[in-house]
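Sample entry (158 residues):
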Amino acid sequence: MIVMAGQVWVSLISLGGVALGGVLSYLVQHRTQRSAERAEQQRQRIALSETRRAERLALLERFIEVSAEAERCAYTRPSEWEVTDDWYLTTQDVMNRLWVADRLLRIQFPLTVSDAAHTHFLDLNRTVWQGLPDGESVRDYLEGNRSAFLDAAREVMG
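Predicted structure, serialized as tokens:
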């Protein structure tokens, strides 16, 4: 009887060890899986953030490039023009592309950047189509809001 009781205890202890080992193994595997899932989620967040940054940078580049074209149109604005003139046809295309670029910034950027870009767009639009009073410089007129836009963009992208 004593021998049998000892065997029962050995079996129970062995069974308890197996059960404890199984529980510990499950806990370790569960924790490892959760850690891997969190690492994957973090990797996806970083990849998404990098993709959005690249998209934003491309939109900024597009807006700056087209606004520079519009500024050149403002510099070459003839005192009188017709809707059939080469200047008008080129300028109309540039201003349409600038309008689109301005709207795309509104979708992708906080209001501080999009508002600054839109103000710069309005300055360019006025300068291109209406001109400036005699003696007023295109560069000086556009500089303030252009700088404000670039500063806002730098702050968001930094």
